[in-house]
Structures are given as C-alpha cells and as structure tokens.
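Fig. S4 source data, part A: sequence.
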Amino acid sequence: MISALIGPLLLGLLISGAFEALLSPRPRPFWQRGAAANSVHLGTWLLLFGVLVLLLQRPWFALMVFLSLQLVVVQSSNAKSHTLNEPFICHDFEYFWDAILHPRLYVPFFGVGLAIAASSAAAVAIGGFFYWEGSLVTSEGASRFLTNALGLIAAGAFLLVLSVSRLPAITLRPADDLYRLGLFASLWAYGVALMRSPVPAPEQSPFHALTAVASAHQSEQLLPNIVLVQSESFFDPRPWCAEVHSDLLPHFDATRASASLHGALSVPAWGANTVRTECALLTGTAPSQWGARQFNPYRTLARHPMPSLASALKAAGYRTVCVHPYLASFYFRHKVMPQLGFDHFIDINAFKSSDKSGQYVSDQAVARKIGRLLEDDDNRPLFVFVITMENHGPLHLEAPNRATLATTLPNAPWPLPDHLRDLAVYLHHLSESDKMLASVKNSLNTAKRPGLLGWYGDHVPILPEAYAHFTPPDSRTPYMVWSSADWKAASERLATAHWETTNEPLELAANELGVQLFKQVFGHDISNDVIKAEPEPQEQE
C-alpha cells in the first residue's frame, strides 16, 4: 500500500507548496522561513492527507480534494486582500458557513463565476474519482489500509505538536505574519494565539468605572435622548476625489459646522469587519486589549458580558435600544447586544420589503424607525444605537443610475468607466445617508426631551477599482457629536472643553468616541485617567 500512497503524497506536497506562490501578498520562499514553519507545512499536509485518505479510501481523490480546498483558501485570501487589505487568517474559516447563510455578502467578492465553476468541477471530479479510482480497502485489505492511513495522521500530528510551539511570535499584522510564516504556519499560529488569548476583564472597559458616574445621575430629569448612528461605510470622499460633487453632503457639512465635537476617527477596519469598530466604540476597549480576539471580538462577547456605553447609560435610567435592519443573528448580535446592556434589539423583521433601497433596508426607513422610537411616551430618556445597512457592499451588484450623477459625479462621462461604476453607486447611497442625518436631527429637535446625536462611519467602502485609479483614501472616517438647541442651552452649566469653543477638529480612536459621548452627557470634568486607563499589553504567542 505504501507504493500506492507515495506518488500522490509527494506530488501533493510539491503542489501545495507551489500554490503558496499564488497568494497575494506572497509569502517569502520556504528556504527563508525557518525549520518550524516548514515543519508545520509538512505536518499539516501529512495530517490532512491522511484524514482524507482514511475517509475517501482513494489517495488520488484525497490529493485532489486537499488541493481544491487549499485553492479555495488561496482565492479567499486574495479576494480579502484585494478588498479589505488583509489576508485570510484562521478566524475567517467561520465565514465559509456565513457565506452559505448570507451568500450575497460574500460570494460576489470571491467571484460568482468562479464559485459556480469550482462547484461544477468538484461535482464532476467526485463522480469521476469514485468511478475510476478503486478503494484501497478493497485492493489492500482493511488492516493494512488503516495502519498506513493512521500512520500518516500520526506523523503529521507529531510534526505539528513539535513545531507549532516553536513558531516565531505573531505580530497580529496578518499580512506581515503571512509573509514571514507562509499560509499553513500562519493559520496555525493565529489559531493557537486565539485559543490562548485571555478574555478581557470587565475592568478593562472604561465604562466599568463610568457606570458609577452614570448611576449618580439616575434621577436627573435633564438627561437627553441619545441617538448614536454607525453609518455603513460612511466617509467624506470629496477630499479624496476631486470629481465628487462639492455639495454631495449638505446636511453633514451643516451638522459638522455646529457640532460640539467632530474630527477624524481612527477605526480598526478597512472595507468590512464592522464589529471591530463597533466593539471598540461600545466597550471603550482598544483592539490591542483583545489580543488575537480582536479580529472578531463579538464571538467572545457573545459568551462574556462587558461593560459598555449602553450598560452605563442604562445605570442612569436610560431605555437602551439597538436598531440594525439585518438578521439579528449575524455576527451573534442577538447574543452580544443583551450582554452589552441593550434592552431591546430591533432587526430586519421590523421592516418591510418596501423599505429597501438597492440591496438593503434604506437609511430613510431606519430614520423613520428612530423617529417613532423618539415619539414614545416613556418617561425615561432613550439611547438608540443604530447600525445602518444601505451602503453595504457588494456595490457592483447594483447598476449606477445616470439620473443621479448630476449630484454625485457631475462631470463623469456616460457610460461610466469601470473605476467610476461602483463609486457612483456608493455616492448615491451616501447622499441618502446624508438625508437620514437631517431626518434624525429633526426628530431629536421635535422630541419632548433635548437630544444628542453621535454619527460616525465604521470603515471606508470597498472600491478597489476606484482606489487603484485615484489612490486609496485615508483609512479614517469622520465622526460628529451634535446637540439639539435645548440640550445646548441646558448644558452650559457643564465645563466646556477646548474643541467646543473653537469647533476645531479632534482626532479620536474608535474606542474613545463612546467615552467622549458619555462626557457630553454627564460632564467634562470626568477624569481622563478613567478614560485613558489601559491594561498592560498582552503577550502574544
């Protein structure tokens, strides 16, 4: 039986190494990686090949399955690098299941044609191999087959146990680690680091200490309604691209001019991975505090509660509501939001099909939902955290509308060149976000209580063709904190900060914005030591 295995075994090892040259960014050559990284590659191949041989009983079929799966990971990594500036890491394996549940969000970036072709080829190959290649159990006997298959598995497992612990420490910069270690070793290194990374303690959130401050204001009638909007892919494209209409965002411009706080927000995401920004803002914790868990902190928060802006406001007597016009289970938000202190989660089931604009529920429909929440006769102040969806990609699934170009790209030719097609779609939806901003401000102004509005973008949009043509924009997004006239007058008793009197922009990290919003409500004399306190950096494996 060894002779039946040696051919596919050696050929597969050679091809699996060659496939790494298809990665972008490309890892450095094997001879520059070190013995541990190369042993992990070899051990992974032996282990998985042995498992597939054990399951399929056909070594050439096992070779084909392994290499096909590796190609899927390679293509997924390249697509992710192209759109999100970050290669595939072990955390991303769960997205294959998400791609089945939510194909519109993932498959178009992989390539619809490629996905169909790969699926069809796999079906043909499965049938062909089962027909042409005989089972080793039949030809060699069950005892010899099990001995050799289990021997491969044991050899691979031994090499992995011996080598994974000897890998160089990861930097938590996926592109750098992929380059240094190669695909298989970087996947194992991130997986081990994820398992060993401690869960952040509740005390690491600044809202752990600020909850006591909020509780002291529970009986205060002055507390304003608060609406905090995480606007999907919101950024100001005008400084980046001169072809964008200068009056694209009139309500954004007017709000920023009168905002009590505004500036650039440093966000831990590019193009997607919204929950990284979302978690930082709500919990006040920086990505560095999460270690290897930072790439999807909601997986941890689904099981471990953490003090947050919502729970602190709840301690002050606020009714806390999260509005997200998508499936509540996506990113485990149906579990995370209660853990963060939200009383109620309004998801896509509260909207109608007529509320859609393009692929998703419109920002205008979400604004109407916020307005109805603010009309509630509940005597408690209201905190609404909003996660919009209208401007979510894939943008190339929508066709640009020539009629909207006058207000978005007035000098663009028609038909649009490739680098402007997705940009035109994005700008149309961005203008709808601007209208949502005006609607929410109006609802806050007409509510019985004074109002406070926070607005920010979770990340820049996915526009690879436009970025290749115009060069990529700054990865930061804008934010604002705006107060209704009633709240401005009432808050004059609070100590004012420098940026409130000059309206100069203040750059913040995403984990600082929620705390600054809290300070707008409860006073600017809150100690910065509480806000800036961070634990010692965690050592990564």
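Fig. S4 source data, part B ends here. The radius of gyration is 26 Å.
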